[in-house]
Amino acid sequence: MDNQTDILPAICFGEVLWDMLPEGPQPGGAPLNVAYHLKRRGIKTNIFSKIGNDLQGHQLLSLIRSWGLGTDFLQVDTRYPTSQVLAKMNGTEVSYEIVSPVAWDFIEQMEAARPLINSSTYFIYGSLASRNEFTRSTLFDLLENDCIKVFDINLRPPFVSRDLLGALLTKADIVKFNQAELEMVQSVFGGSFSNEASQIRFIQDKFHVQEIIVTKGEFGASYYKNHQIYNACGREVKVQDTIGSGDSFLAAFIAGHFLNKEPRQIIKDAVAMGAFIATKKGGCPDYQIQEYREFNSKMF
User: Fold this and answer.
1) Residue 254: which domain range?
2) Which of 41, 101, 104, 238 holds its CA 20 to 30 A away from the CA of 7?
3) Neighbours of 260 (CB within 10 A)
4) CATH number for the domain including 77?
5) In whole angstroms, how far apart are CA 129 and each of 154, 189, 231, 254?
6) Which neighbouring-strand residues pair with 149?
């Protein structure tokens, strides 16, 4: 456990589900993956989502509780099933068929959540959960809070429109892109810049985003903050699969951000965590934090 991180409340909002992989179902959904890795860093994290009143939902709830994640705002739907995503492997890469409608398409507003959210440091959300108007309305209502709002783009066409993406970006304090998403988003909003720094400046100016992260797979990541750029190179590792690698990266970034580490150290730690999880199977593998620290010390 990292020093002091157990005092941090964080909220992860959005989809929780089962990834139906060739070797069997695995728990997933970007918000759940991020929450899992935050908890591994000793960060108190609550899940704000919805499961079905079915066997898959009961199994997911039991697992989430066993991880020590807060479930006060994990709702149960009596009409729609627990989400399942059909995942197809192509070597170590994965593609998804996201079934709808499912329980997390109908996440309800909860007045009891407001005090907890307002007292939290981070509110983490993505774009996929907004595909349905019901959950979208809940999300935008919850985004009226005083937290540091972290937007994990995580585009899944055709679920995100230009207007919706713009509204989600406007609410964010920190945004995480991968390179393809950054290129697409700046183009959607009229940018025609060919280099990354200009694309970032365009997004920051248009949406008043304070901090932007760009992940680059095996080539590392860049962190843009206060007109400064901090880079961390990746390195080749023996990849088991890439499921949840970006989510673990984001969790490590948030942990370092909370501890006010130096920006260059924050991005290095995040890159190391993403690489570390890529060496394991699934988005929420079992590991000890000391394993990651040893991996990190060898990586840089």
Assistant:
1) 5-299
2) 104
3) 7
4) 3.40.1190.20
5) 10, 21, 30, 21
6) 123
Residue-wise pLDDT for 207-260, tens only, equals: 999 999 999 988 999 999 988 999 999 988 999 988 899 999 999 999 999 999
Length of the chain: 300
Neighbours of 298 (CB within 10 A): 9
pTM here is 0.94
**pLDDT band with cut points at 50, 70 and 90 for residue 37:** very high
Distance from C-alpha of 270 to C-alpha of 248, rounded to nearest angstrom: 8
Task: Quote the percentage of the chain above a pLDDT of 90.
Answer: 78
Which sign, positive or negative, has the C-alpha torsion 193, 198, 202, 204? Answer: positive
3-state secondary structure (DSSP) of residue 108: coil
d(CA 164, CA 254): 25
Residue 15 Ramachandran class (φ > 0 left, ψ -120 to 50 alpha, else beta): beta
Structural domain count of the chain: 1
Place of tokens 């290095």: 268
Contact 182, 204 (CB under 8 A): no
Per-residue CA distances from 270 to 109, 217, 283, 296 (Å): 32, 12, 15, 9
Residues 6+ apart with CB under 8 A from 265: 256
> Is beta strand 9-13 parallel, antiparallel or unpaired with respect to 44-52?
parallel
Q: Rounded distance, CA 284 to CA 272, Å?
A: 16
How far apart, in whole angstroms, are the C-alpha atoms of residue 3 and residue 253?
Answer: 15
* Contact present, 16 and 64 (Cβ < 8 Å): yes
Contact 299, 279 (CB under 8 A): no
